Amino acid sequence: MRYRPYVPYLFIAPMLLGLILFRLGPMLVSLAASFTDWNIISAPTWLGLRNYREMLSSAAFWEVLGNTSLYALFYVPGVMILGLALAVLVNQRLPGSTFFRGFFFLPYITSTVAVALVWKWIFATRFGLLNALLHAVGVDDPPSWLGDADYALVSVAVVAVWQHAGFQMLLFLAGLQNIDDGLREAARIDGATEFQIFRRITLPLLSPVTFFILIISLIASSQTFEVTYALTGGGPQRASTTLAFYIYQNAFVHFRMGYASALAYVLLTLVGTITLVNFALRRRWVSYG
Amino acid sequence: MADVAAPLRTRATVRHRDKGMRKARRGLVVYLFLFAYAVITLVPFAWMVLTSFKEPGDVFRVPPTVSPTLLYGEEPFQNYREVLTRYSFARYLLNSLFVAGTAALGQLVTCSLAGFAFARMHFRGKNILFALVLATMLVPTEITIIPEFLLMVRLGWLDTYLPLIVPSLMIGAFGTFLLTEFFKTVPRELEDAAVIDGATPFGAYLRIFLPLAGPALASLFVIAFITNWNELLRAVLYISDSDLRTLPLGLTALQGQYESRWTLLMAGAVVSVLPMILVYLAAQKYIVRGFVSSGLK
Q1: Each residue's pLDDT tens digit in chain B (297 positions)?
Q2: I need a surface site. Which of A15, A29, B18, B262 has the fewest CB within 10 A?
Q3: Number of inter-chain CB pairs under 8 A, A vs B
Q4: CB neighbours of B170 closer than 8 A, spacing ≥ 6?
Q5: Using an 8 Å Cβ cutoff, are B100 and B228 in contact?
């Protein structure tokens, strides 16, 4: 094809404009904003590192950071183990497997607000489905889940795991289907049990996919917003407020744009560091055959 | 002689039967787990639908009743009628359709244009720009949303559909990646044939490459449609005019207003979930394929 040198830029112009207006530009603006005090209405004033220093001495920030870690500890292993288990189950290729695969994915494509709402109703203290079931099996005093500081965060994580497990299943399934059946067959002939085959052959061969899913699950857990918004609003008090939700509250409820931007950069740095650490540790358990 | 071999043979058959039994038993266990998790997947949806067909008083019974009482009455769709008309969910439905539809169509245009250039043309800075597009997929919304909000305020776009459509339409990082990869697979000869016929790059893009990309475009469209349909944060930030609410926003507003009217809320939830389930059933192949490649980018 022959064309003038500027022609390709015409093709990418809309995307390039979007990249500048909605990604690169905003990233720089919020970095700058993180050093200021800014409530939208009046002009920002320069604070230097004061926003970051305020964080370090703020009990709320540390509580939220603790919640964020705890949430990741529930969510990441939960969604990954469930996703892998479901992938192994539907990969048995029994009649109906395709149906189950399609069905398990359903929660992922439905509106988080809508499914969170029905979970809220399931978790309801007095008239909810869950506590009715618990009563039926003899638990006399079940907790009020979303209203209880000890259970709110884990309840939010449960809903997120329920909604995302089907997606992780698909990713694991794609990985499982790439594994050569011959290896497993050979091990079977040598008398290996199914569990040994899974442990010694399937898991190591799956490890690059597992690594990738670990990274995206960590990123997803750091960005959780909608489930929290619809289920608990971060409460009771701050019990289920994670960093992403705290950023939203600071920016758009308290209009502390500068402080929220600083929090956002802390989030980015944390997620970036964890991702890099994971990449560094990758050699220890990920095998690229 | 046969007598010597007989025990061996029996043992072999026994082992064979054993293996068959073990296989059947394993199949049974697998089905047991599959059904168990299918129930866990189904219960919230079932509870949503059942509750949407109950009378308001039914939801406060202890223990909860399963029976959708309205279905036996004179007006089974009472909650739906109320939520669609009195609480404007019919309007929200149209808003959501419009917003998700335009954003998804727009993404097809911008992503396919950019994908074509990245895959089939040469220009300075191509690799860096492509890497930048991909890298922005990983930047969390929390970082960019505050300046984006201020930009929308400046542009005077609050309480219009534009902030729900334009950013999503212009930043299709995943879509660009998907289509770039696809356009790379188109054989060189097809392009050459077009060039001999005197086609400009745009002509080749429009008449040769786009028609070939049908399945990839379909995947991208449904994924973009679903993502935009479910978008909450931007709707919360940019829309305060109740006529412009999308379904997720309408649902949270209804929840804030009528915390305990579960029958209405569940009817609203069904209205926002059902269209996506239908889209999913109709285009499952494209959706599954697209989401897998969006994950395995």
Answers
A1: 445 555 555 555 555 667 778 778 888 999 999 999 999 999 999 999 998 998 887 777 777 777 787 888 788 888 999 999 999 999 999 999 999 999 999 999 999 999 999 999 999 999 999 998 888 877 888 889 999 999 999 999 999 999 999 998 888 888 898 899 889 988 888 888 887 887 888 989 998 899 998 888 988 898 899 889 989 999 999 999 989 999 999 999 998 888 778 899 999 999 999 999 998 888 887 777 777 766 553
A2: B18
A3: 272
A4: A14, A15, A17, A18, A19, A21, A22, B106, B110
A5: yes
125-184 of B, contacting A, C-beta below 8 A: 126, 129, 132-133, 136, 138-151, 153, 167, 169-172, 176
Label residue A145 left, alpha or beta by phi (over 0 means left) and psi (-120 to 50 means alpha). Answer: left
Helix (H, G, I), strand (E, B), or coil: what is residue A116? Answer: helix
Contact flag A223-B138 (C-beta cutoff 8 Å): no
Cβ proximity of A104 and B37 under 8 Å = yes
Q: Which 8-state DSSP code applies to residue A38?
A: -
ipTM over 0.90: no
Tell me how close the Cα of A283 comes to any Cα of chain B, in angstroms.
20
B290 vs A: CB within 8 A: no
Q: Which of A27, A110, A213 sits opposite B144 (nearest CB)?
A: A27
The beta-carbon neighbor of A8 closest among B51, B123, B270 is B123
